[in-house]
Design brief:
It contains nine helices and no strands. The protein is an all-alpha fold. α4 crosses α7 and α4 packs antiparallel against α9.
């Protein structure tokens, strides 16, 4: 009777995926000098993952700010601190909510598009055709999308924060009657550029790198079938969400 080979555990598969993704990151970094020859492709990808995501980022940012303003005004007014509503909204956005929510939206909109596009290139043998024509797919396809994610995320976070603060201003000042000067003066006094704003920019750049890396890796290594592309797109959203939240905790612990 022949012995059956033990099946690998899911934990082992997950660790193997993490290791393969780490090695893929080194390959992307090594391909950056070659990708500079295709700077127009990188700019096109920045437009695709950045400018084409503005609608969902601006809409969600506006409503997130309105909800924050409404809830915080209600809570702070119980303690006689309703004048600090703008400050608390700004600190929550710059430090946590802006980078995290934008990264999750970015993963759902741009990350899935990147994975599906590269996965279809793999399924239709376009990547193999590039290799036959002496064109490095890593430098022409993968690396520009990876760099575009790093560049676009901080810009999208700035737009998200601006619209969220505008939404909070509309609710607190226009609707609930908070003094406009008090709203802005408390915010500018208590929000520090280096501690709050710059740390949020660092977070957003790191989140953009992580989401873009996962999206490119899943698309580049997907099985060349329609089912494989579908699973890769799903894994991009799931893994990106988990990675963003875990990395947010780590960076918050070090930056605070």
């Amino acid at each position: 009777m022949s012995a059956t080979r033990p099946r690998p555990s899911r934990i082992g598969d997950a660790l193997a995926q993490v290791g393969a993704c780490g090695l893929f990151l080194f390959q992307l970094i090594g391909a950056i000098p070659k990708s500079l020859r295709h700077i127009k492709e990188t700019i096109r990808q920045v437009w695709f993952v950045g400018a084409m995501s503005l609608v969902i980022i601006m809409t969600c940012g506006l409503f997130v700010g309105m909800v924050l303003g409404l809830q915080l005004y209600d809570v702070l007014s119980r303690f006689g601190s309703a004048a600090m509503s703008g400050t608390v909204v700004a600190l929550a956005l710059y430090r946590e909510l802006g980078p995290v929510v934008t990264a999750l939206l970015f993963a759902g909109r741009a990350g899935t598009s990147i994975t599906a596009e590269i996965g279809l290139m793999r399924a239709t043998d376009q990547l193999a055709a590039m290799e036959m024509m002496a064109v490095d797919p890593l430098a022409y396809v993968a690396t520009p999308r990876f760099l575009a994610g790093i560049v676009a995320m901080p810009l999208l976070v700035c737009v998200f924060n601006a619209l969220a603060i505008l939404g909070a201003h509309v609710v607190c000042v226009t609707w609930l009657g908070l003094d406009n000067g008090t709203f802005w003066s408390n915010m500018t006094t208590n929000v520090d550029v280096w501690t709050d704003v710059v740390n949020g920019v660092w977070k957003s750049a790191a989140f953009g790198a992580v989401v873009a890396l996962i999206a490119v890796f899943q698309g580049y290594t997907t099985p060349p079938t329609s089912e494989g592309v579908a699973y890769a797109t799903t894994r991009t959203v799931v893994f990106s969400s988990i990675a963003v939240l875990a990395l947010d905790f780590v960076m918050t612990a070090f930056l605070t």
